[in-house]
Specification:
Layout (H helix, E strand, L loop, with lengths): L9 H23 L10 E7 L2 E3 L6 E7 L2 E5 L4 E6 L6 E2 L4 E5 L2 H36 L5 H33 L2 E3 L4 E6 L6 E2 L4 E7 L3 E8 L11 E6 L6 E8 L9 E7 L10 E6 L3 E2 L2 E2 L3 E6 L4 E3 L2 E8 L4 E13 L2 E6 L6 E5 L10 E3 L33
Parallel strand pairs: 1-25
Antiparallel strand pairs: 1-24, 2-19, 3-12, 3-16, 4-11, 5-7, 5-10, 6-9, 7-8, 9-11, 12-15, 13-14, 13-16, 14-15, 17-18, 19-23, 20-21, 21-22, 21-24, 22-23
């Protein structure tokens, strides 16, 4: 049993015990209470005031020069290619032989047709001789008129067989001539699609020929820019490396998109110039049209760093200069002007927009304006003096006596 120290009163011990219990309860409550939330830091942002500027850039499309008429030539009969007489890039004349098939089977068929003609001719001559004799007999009343008519009909049938055989002979001769692939017009061979030894079907492309004459500038435009083009529209065409440009007119607009690139091909008729095939050209619509906006008109432009994507839409942070808080604003981008985005709707001149640090902000967040840090001024350097303190000269040691 613990005893109180001499001179210690009971009330003092009770108060000491109560004080310790109170301190323990206060510590437990302090441990269970939630910490106060840390205040969100005020971020410094760069801003700009929305204003109107003129549109300077124009749309440019890269294309290439192609022949207005480019044919994929093939044999009109099937067979095995024995010779190819031209190479890729070679210039050919009209009527020049490009390739040949094995003509043996067609020559035999032509000989067979010739023999059928000879047989039909013999039958026709025999029927004609019989008709002549029966005509004499009819004049002497030795045969009836019906018998003479039968001989006359036999001659007509023999003549029809002869005509048929002659037509078949002409067809077989044409088939034999089709074993030689001939250029329809003068031009340049742009592709070879079959080689000697290959068996080809009738109509299968063997040689691709770009005919001499008119040239087109062919380029592709995306679907959202197709409405800005029409047949007959005048465009400026600049050949790669040429000092001067030329004017052309839109001749043809593709009716369907390319299945791979999902773009539409447009052909521009070039003037009578000898532009090399495959040359790179730049096409610019005359009149300064760019996605429905005329060059020189007042538009709102923002740097791309001010834009962000939210829910599939382009948005910007608009600063309320009174409360220094930001709010998200949906905008519609019309096109691009160099490195700037042209805003179609969503902003008006005079608004303040955050142009840097847009990805670390939240709606209603307080911000401050970023202040450029100026480098501290360095004190001017003390000019160096040319005078130097003379060095102390040590006394010369006495010479030893000899």
């Amino acid at each position: 049993m613990n005893r109180l120290a001499p001179g210690t009163s009971v009330p003092f011990v009770v108060q000491l015990w109560r004080g310790g219990l109170l301190l323990g309860l206060m510590g437990a409550l302090a441990a269970c209470s939630k910490p106060e939330p840390v205040a969100e830091p005020v971020r410094a942002v760069r801003v700009l005031t929305v204003g109107e500027g003129s549109l300077q850039a124009t749309a440019e499309f890269a294309g290439e020069v192609r022949a207005k008429v480019e044919s994929r030539l093939g044999f009109r009969v099937p067979g095995k290619i024995t010779r190819r007489l031209v190479e890729n890039g070679e210039r050919v004349k009209a009527g020049q032989v490009l390739a040949e098939l094995d003509p043996q089977d067609y020559a035999l068929a032509s000989d067979a047709a010739q023999a059928q003609v000879q047989a039909a001719l013999t039958n026709r001559d025999l029927a004609a001789a019989d008709l002549k004799r029966f005509k004499e007999l009819l004049d002497k009343n030795f045969i009836s008129a019906a018998e003479f008519e039968r001989r006359e009909t036999t001659l007509k049938a023999a003549q029809a067989q002869l005509d048929q055989a002659q037509v078949q002979l002409s067809s077989q001769r044409n088939q034999a001539a089709y074993t030689r692939l001939v250029a329809d017009a003068a031009g340049v061979v742009t592709a070879i699609e079959a080689e000697p030894g290959q068996v080809v079907a009738a109509g299968m492309p063997v040689v691709r020929l770009a005919q001499d004459g008119a040239r087109d500038a062919v380029f592709a435009v995306p679907e959202d820019k197709l409405s800005n083009w029409r047949v007959g529209q005048v465009v400026a065409v600049q050949l790669w490396g040429a000092a001067q440009g030329m004017s052309g007119k839109v001749r043809e607009i593709s009716g369907s998109a390319d299945p791979v690139s999902r773009t539409f091909a447009i052909k521009v008729a070039l003037p009578d110039v000898q532009a090399p095939l495959g040359a790179t050209v730049t096409i610019v619509p005359q009149g300064g049209a760019r996605a429905g906006v005329v060059v020189g008109t007042a538009v709102i432009k923002l740097p791309t760093s001010a834009l962000r994507q939210e829910g599939g839409q382009s948005t910007v942070w608009v600063l309320d200069t009174t409360t220094m808080t930001v709010a998200s604003q949906v905008v519609e981008v019309e096109t691009a002007d160099g490195n700037l985005a042209v805003i179609k709707s969503g902003l008006r001149p005079g608004q303040v927009v955050v142009r840097a640090g847009v990805h670390v902000l939240s709606p209603g967040q307080k911000v401050s304006l970023y202040q450029e840090r100026t480098p501290a001024a360095t004190p001017p350097a003390t000019p160096a003096t040319n005078a130097a303190a003379p060095a102390a000269v040590a006394p010369e040691a006495p010479k030893a006596a000899k």
